[in-house]
TrEMBL record:
Function: Catalyzes the oxidation of 5,10-methylenetetrahydrofolate to 5,10-methenyltetrahydrofolate and then the hydrolysis of 5,10-methenyltetrahydrofolate to 10-formyltetrahydrofolate.
EC nos: 1.5.1.5, 3.5.4.9
Protein name: Bifunctional protein FolD
Lineage: Bacteria, Bacillati, Bacillota, Bacilli, Bacillales
Pathway the protein contributes to: One-carbon metabolism; tetrahydrofolate interconversion
Assembly notes: Homodimer.
Source species of the chain: Lentibacillus persicus
Keywords: Amino-acid biosynthesis, Histidine biosynthesis, Hydrolase, Methionine biosynthesis, Multifunctional enzyme, NADP, One-carbon metabolism, Oxidoreductase, Purine biosynthesis
Pfam families listed in its UniProt record: THF_DHG_CYH, THF_DHG_CYH_C
Length: 286
């Protein structure tokens, strides 16, 4: 029996509709949730992501603006702009679109954003709180993945979750969130020997390794849940994930497509974090 498709686009839209009510309530209390996105340079993919975030913000009633800076901007200028936004009470969330030009230290930029406005969930303070189970802004893609699993009533506790990839943005944090949900977590990466032995033992497989169609039906167990985080552009311009959808869907119980899978959920959780930031700052009198 073919797998059920986890439609991130539909789920994200449903969640954003619910957020609209939250935003309306905040506006009635005199709080207008506001997200500022900084984009450096003219990377087409980054511009596309930023436009998507702006459009989604408008749909939910969240105010947003985009600050465009040239690729030649100095690190000092960028840090100065972030400091201004940290001190701007009307701004609740700050996001610096990655990647940044080579002459700018990405980690330094991430650490310069106030943890209270870090709606991307990348600041070491928020990562540390996530690791210890404290309330924090969660990284948006892992947050979206966990939300997907919950929304489809997919059991996590006691299951063997295998994470392909160990990036700070997806792999490492999603493993921690799965661990918090009482899964048994195995991390796999480019140095893992006998990789497919692990993928075939996974009840939940998170593919975030950046290699198109690397995982096919023969590499997964019957009834597995497959979350494909990969976004790879083929020669014809179309997108494909890290998983060969057609063959994997013949064996899996649930699977996410690419596109319309994890991507829309990432933007949705960014908006959720922005609303949370607006509530937190108002509570703190910020």
């Amino acid at each position: 029996m073919p797998a059920k498709t986890i439609n991130g686009k539909e789920l994200g839209q449903k969640l954003r509709e619910a957020m609209t009510g939250e935003v309306t309530q905040l506006r009635e209390e005199g709080i207008v949730p506001h997200l500022t996105v900084i984009i450096v340079g003219d990377n087409p993919a980054s511009k596309s992501y930023v436009n998507g975030k702006k459009k989604a913000s408008a749909q939910t009633g969240i105010s947003s603006d985009v600050i465009e800076m040239p690729a030649s901007v100095s690190q000092e200028e960028l840090l100065k702009k972030i400091e201004e936004l940290n001190n701007e009470k009307a701004v609740h969330g700050i996001l610096v679109q990655l990647p940044l030009p080579d002459h700018i230290n990405e980690q330094l930029v991430i650490e310069s954003i106030s943890p209270y406005k870090d709606v991307d969930g990348f600041h070491p303070v928020n990562i540390g709180k996530m690791m210890t189970g404290d309330d924090a802004f969660l990284p948006c893609t892992p947050y979206g993945i966990i939300t997907m699993l919950h929304s489809y009533n997919i059991p996590i506790a006691g299951k063997h979750a295998v994470v392909l990839g160990r990036s700070n943005i997806v792999g490492k944090p999603v493993g921690q969130l799965l661990l918090k949900e009482n899964a048994t977590v195995t991390y796999c990466h480019s140095k893992t020997e006998n990789l497919f032995e692990y993928t075939r033992s996974a009840d939940i497989l998170i593919a975030a390794i950046g290699k198109p169609n690397m995982i096919s039906g023969e590499h997964i167990k019957d009834g597995a849940v497959i979350i494909d985080v990969g976004i790879n552009r083929k020669e014809d311009g179309s997108l494909t994930g890290d998983v060969d959808f057609s063959s994997a869907a013949e064996k899996a119980a649930y699977i996410t497509p690419v596109p319309k899978g994890v991507g829309p959920m990432t933007i949705t959780m960014l908006l959720q974090n922005t609303i949370k930031a607006a509530k937190g700052l108002s509570h703190l009198g910020g």
